[in-house]
Structure formats: C-alpha cells, structure tokens
Amino acid sequence: VLMCFGDKLEEEQIKQVEFVQRRELLSFPRFGILNFLPNFTKFFLRKRWDEFLQMRREQTDVLLPLIRSRRRIVESGDSEKKDYVQSYVDTLLDLELPEEKRKLNEDEIVSLCSEFLNAGTDTTATALEWIMANLVKNPEIQERLHDEIKSVIGEEEEEIEEEEMKKMPYLKAVVLEGLRRHPPGHLLLPHRVSEDAELGGYKVPKKGTINFNVAEIGRDPGVWEEPMEFKPERFVGEGEEAAVDITGSRGIKMMPFGAGRRICPGIGLAMLHLEYYVANMVKEFEWKEVEGEEVDLTEKMEFTVVMKHPLKARAVPRRRRHIVNAMAF
C-alpha cells in the first residue's frame, strides 16, 4: 500500500483496502466469464453483472480518495520536497497515452492500482506458503538452508540483509524450486495471436486466443528429473537444470513470471521478497509439523492456486530469547 499510494495509512484504511482487494480476488472465478462474452452475459447474466458493478463501486469508494489525495500533493508542489518518496500512483498521474495523447482517467487508475496491489501481495503470499510447506515437509532441506544462512551471517546477527542473500545460492534454489513446483498462477493471462501461426504442429488462426500452462511446463518429465519432487539442489552447481533462466530469454523450461516483453514487471521485487522472508523465517525458527496435522500439498484454485488446506506449522525458536509456541499461515 505504501509503494502504491506513497503514504502510511491508518490501520482502518488498510483493512478497507485489504477487504475490497481480497473480495475481488475471491470473486474472480465467478465474474471471469463476464470478460469473454460481455454483450451476451449482460443480457443473460444481468444479476451477476449487477453484483460485479456494485463490487467495483465499493472498491472505487475505497481507492479513489487515496488517488485524489496523492494528486493534490503533486499539484500543490509538495512532491518537489527532499523527503518526498515517489509512489506508483505518481507515475500513473504523470503518464500520457501516446496514441490517444491523453492522461489516464480515474477509472483506469483505480484498475491499475488494484492490479498492482493484488499482483504484489497475493501471488507472493501464495508462493511463500508453498515454499514454507515444503520446508516443513522436508526438514533436511530446511536444515541445509539454515546451515547456509549461519555460514554467511553467523549466529547473532539480527536480520539478513539484501547483500548477504546474494551469497546464499541454496536460498535462491529453494525459492526457485518452490516457484517451479508450485507457481502461484498455473495459467498466464490470455494472449491474442496477431497473425496466422503454427505451433507444435497446430495451426493458430489470427486473432485466436491462446494461453500457456505454466505449471505443466515446470513439471515436464522430459525436462526435469523427478519433476514432482521438491529438490532445490537441482538449481545448484553446474548441471543443465542449474542453468535455467526463469525470464525465458535463453530458452523456456519454467516461467512462473511469464516471458518476453509481457513478463511480470515485478519479478525482481517478488524474488527479493521471497528470499528475504524465507531466509529470516528459517534463521529465527525451526518450522515443524503440528502434531496430528500432516502437511497436505493438495491444490485449490482461487485467483491463484493455493493450498486446499492452509499450512499449519510449529515455529520453534532457534534462540532462547524468543518465545513462540505455534504459528499458522
């Protein structure tokens, strides 16, 4: 929220933003069909359209005042002060559409802010839960990661910093394996073909809609050895799998963030967040299964593909000064 709007909000405001955004995510399966045949569904699914438009109005009522507040700051000249931090909204207010030679309207900015908030939180939180679930389920992997962390920063340092994470190849391998085995989005956003093409022996007509099954690409047994196993070591060393480029610029073996010009612009931030959270959580706590609660890796489709049974784990402090009995995601 701070990155989006540039201001620290009151707790009640943050709860309102969280509510409207979470509701939008959970409603995605119900309202997704409205995108494909709008003229047809506006007649035959009128009630569903009314529900969607009401949800949109309530979302706008929460986000638009924050956008307008930021606009007033920019227009007042306060954005020139030294302590001013540029936000995502600032860039949108300044953006001009070259073909139409106009600025974005408020409705468009609300939509873009909504995308920014959901893409920057839900996908990362989902990926983090899957990674931690596999670390709980595979304590030997968790211990190897902890050993690497200790070897880089020692026992007493309070918090792992970004520069230190660059010296932790196994940490990155754990995150990459989590994204390969459990990409938050199993499908990319639909793409439209600009001209007739042929792909894998199939003819794809101009203006045809296509999609890519990201999950199955990362689980292809023709590419990955034991693809359904969680094995971070596949990304360590000199082997073929270790050289995988997740941006897709040197061949595509996994693409949790998409590939090419339309790759997720938040890839760098997402990787940083995931490595940071995983490293600091494993540094401070040993994560174990709750007695009688075996970790279940069954998937469930929401906006992202989440754990059908949310992770429950015991967080055992690695240092005596911490007292934590249990923690659930």
UniProtKB/TrEMBL annotation:
Query: Which sites bind heme?
Result: 264
Primary localization class, coarse? membrane
Keyword Metal-binding attributed = yes
* Localization annotation: Membrane
Listed InterPro entries: Cyt_P450, Cyt_P450_CS, Cyt_P450_E_grp-I, Cyt_P450_sf, Plant_metabolite_P450s
Instruction: Name one molecular function that GO assigns to this entry.
Output: iron ion binding
> Membrane topology for this entry?
Single-pass membrane protein
- Report the domain of life of the source organism: Eukaryota
Q: Does the keyword Transmembrane apply?
A: yes
**Which cofactors are reported in the record for this sequence?**
heme
Provide the alphabetized UniProt keywords: Heme, Iron, Membrane, Metal-binding, Monooxygenase, Oxidoreductase, Transmembrane, Transmembrane helix
> Mind naming one GO cellular-component term on file for this protein?
membrane
The UniProt entry's sequence similarity note says: Belongs to the cytochrome P450 family.
Q: Which PANTHER family match?
A: CYTOCHROME P450 89A2-RELATED, FLAVONOID 3'-MONOOXYGENASE-RELATED
Please identify the protein, giving its name as recorded: Cytochrome P450 89A2
Q: Which organism is it from?
A: Noccaea caerulescens
